């Protein structure tokens, strides 16, 4: 399964972030990392179900986790 970086909305409370994480788990995802500097987490998630995360009320962005290079 691909891994995605999930960023929650800045106004989301800790309980709302936890709700987004639980939603990801309920849809077959596995949380692989929890971020402290941003309200977000990394999750291994089935690519064919990613729209369920993108449309969650407390999620701001869903981005495929990939290597970043500088020039």
TrEMBL record:
Residues 3-71 form the Inhibitor I9 domain. SUPFAM superfamilies: Protease propeptides/inhibitors. Transmembrane segments: none annotated. It comes from the Eukaryota. One of its GO terms (biological process) is vacuole fusion, non-autophagic. GO terms for molecular function: endopeptidase inhibitor activity. InterPro entries: PBI_I9, S8pro/Inhibitor_I9, S8pro/Inhibitor_I9_sf. Belongs to the protease inhibitor I9 family. This is Inhibitor I9 domain-containing protein. It comes from Xylaria hypoxylon.
